[in-house]
Write a structure and sequence with these properties.
The complex is a heterodimer of chains A (193) and B (273). The radius of gyration of chain A is 24 Å and the shape is elongated. In chain A, 40% of the residues are buried. With 193 residues, chain A is mainly alpha-helical. Helix content of chain A is 64%, strand content 2%. In chain A, a hairpin with a 2-residue loop joins strand 1 and strand 2. Chain A has seven helices and two strands; from the N terminus they run ααββααααα. Chain A has one domain: Arp2/3 complex 21 kDa subunit ARPC3 (Orthogonal Bundle). By secondary structure, chain B is an alpha+beta fold. Chain B has a domain of 152 residues: Rod shape-determining protein MreC, domain 2 (Thrombin, subunit H, Beta Barrel), CATH 2.40.10.350. In chain B, strands 1-2-5-4-3-12 form a six-stranded antiparallel beta barrel. In chain B, strands 6-7-8-11-10-9 form a six-stranded antiparallel β-barrel. The longest helix of chain B has 44 residues. In chain B, strand 4 and strand 5 form a beta hairpin. Chain B has three helices and twelve strands. Classes of the chains: A mainly alpha (193), B alpha+beta (273). The interface between A and B is medium-sized, with 33 and 31 residues.
Chain lengths: 193, 273
């Protein structure tokens, strides 16, 4: 090849109408999961919690997949879906042995997470983990209040607050792992949430 | 003038109110059921639908956990298993020894009671052998003349009369059992006080020379009567059959001996009366 040959030199010049420098990327279309799927996940999570994970504990604290799911749903889908899924999750938790102390806390947690949906990205680690921590604390407080009001059980806070703090830590850890898995799955195309 | 959108717009407020109302109703139903000690409808549905799944999951989880533990602790489990097997064997052996001691203890207690009941001095002896041939029903004890045992000393245990000494060595003696056909023991029926003579039939014993007018029944107890050799009142056995013939002078009673002669290991010798 010679620089004196203009015809050959043309081949080395980038022509504007040629192939683009970067491959074209379509705009991301993200569809929130349907409520039926989320309800099934909530049922599955409650069953797993009450069986396989019942023996897993850390300083007396058990993993709550339901709280993580409810908060994620609220952040991802908004107040309506988050609130109703929280109600469903609390109902399931109570039906499997809560005695009515979970339903209000879970509902408020789902609704509260939904309030954050318009202001924060749902896949942000700090937002999601902070929301899970707040939801776990809220659920614990509502449970203690319900126990005190409905069943006359005093001193639940003094007795269980230490465990509740560890439960918040455990739930935040599970939330971080879950969000990592979701982000990884989305980047690989396994998850379309 | 531009309206600033409220954080709590009407839609969110409606959703919030609806959620709070429904959640409160559900909570009250659940609490009411729990306070009454009953299951709510949701509890029943969950119990019916979820319980089988929970059961299957728990079983699967236990199996997996057990297998994982076995896989990761195979060596330790093997050692524990061997140690437990050795411990089980030792405990089984100890248990057998305890049972043996218990039997021995019961026998000794009975013998102590007999010792207190019979007059005179007694010597405890171990049975060291039986007659090797079936010519006579005899046994050998490990006490002899050096311990003070003499001919015709009465031998018994906690159950009753065994026999009497028929020959004495320095350190052993032979005892003729009451089931030997040559044995003859004066005896009487405890209930009617009718006298007779007990002789052996090899496996059992018979009480002969019982008067025809004596009324007896199966189960009547026969004890020794005072004679040249035997003291009175030692149990011999119980009547099992009665042989009464109208043209005979006497009745005969077949006896079940009180003593099990096949399993004797310790006896008392009544050396002085």
């Amino acid at each position: 090849m010679s620089t004196l040959d203009p015809a050959r030199a043309d081949e080395r010049l980038r022509i504007g109408s040629g192939t683009p420098r970067r491959p074209r990327v379509d705009a991301e279309i993200s569809v929130p999961p349907r409520f039926g799927l989320l309800a099934l996940l909530a049922i599955a999570a409650s069953i797993v919690q009450s069986t396989v994970l019942s023996s897993v504990e850390f300083r007396g604290a058990h993993i709550s997949l339901l709280i993580v799911l409810v908060v994620w749903t609220g952040l991802r889908c908004g107040v309506v879906t988050g609130g109703w899924l929280g109600l469903l999750a609390g109902l399931i938790a109570d039906a499997l042995g809560g005695g009515g102390v979970n339903v209000l806390g879970f509902t408020l947690a789902g609704f509260g997470a939904g309030l954050l949906a318009n202001r924060f990205f749902w896949d942000s680690f700090p937002v999601f983990i902070a929301a899970v921590a707040a939801a776990a604390a809220l659920c614990a407080f509502v449970s203690w209040a319900t126990l005190a009001i409905a069943f006359g059980e005093r001193g639940a806070f003094a007795r269980d607050s230490h465990t509740a703090v560890w439960a918040i830590v455990v739930d935040c850890t599970v939330a971080a792992i879950a969000l990592t898995f979701i982000r990884f799955g989305r980047s690989r195309g396994w998850i379309r949430a | 003038m531009v309206a600033i959108p409220s954080f709590w717009d009407e839609r969110k407020l409606l959703v919030f109110l609806a959620l709070i109302i429904v959640a409160s109703v559900v909570m009250l139903i659940e609490i009411d059921a729990a306070r009454r000690g009953r299951q709510s409808f949701a509890d029943q549905v969950a119990g019916t639908v979820v319980a089988p799944i929970q059961s299957a999951l728990m079983m699967t989880g236990r199996v997996i956990a057990t297998e994982a533990y076995v896989a990761t602790h195979a060596r330790v489990i093997g050692e524990q298993d061997a140690a437990l097997a050795a411990k089980a064997r030792a405990l089984a052996a100890a248990d057998e020894r305890l049972k043996e001691h218990a039997v021995e203890n019961r026998e000794l207690l009975r013998m102590l009671a007999v010792r207190a009941a019979v007059p005179g001095r007694t010597i405890e002896a171990d049975v060291v052998g039986y007659a090797p041939e079936a010519a006579r029903r005899e046994l050998t004890i490990d006490r002899g003349s050096s311990e003070g045992i003499a001919l015709n000393d009465v031998v018994l245990n906690g159950d009753g009369l065994i026999g009497h000494v028929v020959d004495v060595g320095r350190s052993s003696a032979h005892v003729l059992l009451i089931v030997d056909p040559t044995s003859a023991v004066p005896a009487y029926l405890q209930r009617s006080h009718a006298w007779g003579i007990v002789t052996g039939t090899w496996l059992h014993a018979r009480m002969k020379y019982i008067g025809q007018d004596v009324r007896m029944a199966a189960g009547d107890v026969v004890v020794t009567g005072l004679g040249e050799i035997y003291p009175a009142g030692i149990p011999i056995g119980t009547v099992s059959e009665i042989d009464r013939k109208d043209n005979a002078l006497y009745q005969v009673a077949v006896l079940d001996p009180a003593v099990k002669f096949e399993s004797l290991d310790r006896v008392l010798v009544l050396v002085a009366r």
